[in-house]
Amino acid sequence: MKNIASKPVHRYDSGSIEIDAESLAAECLVHIYVNTKHLTSLLASPENLDELVRGHLQTEYALHHHKTEFETQIKANEEEFIVEVTTDTELHLASRNTIVTTSCGACEQDQLSALIEQTPSVSNPSRQISIEALIRSLNDMRNHQPGFGQTGGMHAAGLY
Length: 160
Known about the structure:
The chain is an alpha/beta fold. Helices cover 25% and strands 31% of the residues.
């Protein structure tokens, strides 16, 4: 499976309909297991999964690969990917039973206060990233993910 899927679409222009193709960012389920225990499932583009998982573990679980050595193994079928992370370090990570998406979840809330109450707090980073480094990283991501230029959307594994 690739990051980009070409899908047929109907285009309406100047009173006529044409069949055309649209490039869309492909998405699939990515299940992450740590030492054989299911940790979480992501809805993500299917390429650069090693980087995606390492970045997810770092940002969501404060598991830094340079502090905790771990290996990843990726298995796939037609509809989903399983990423098995193994480490000799005993980890106590809270498993999530819901699929993690890039959406904020506000669409599913009746009140904004309910969303705020469910949003976990994030501790301050141990080091700051300069705006120049962030812009450089975004440009690098764009250069390494040509699908972004075609679809406008890919996962941010390139930032990692």
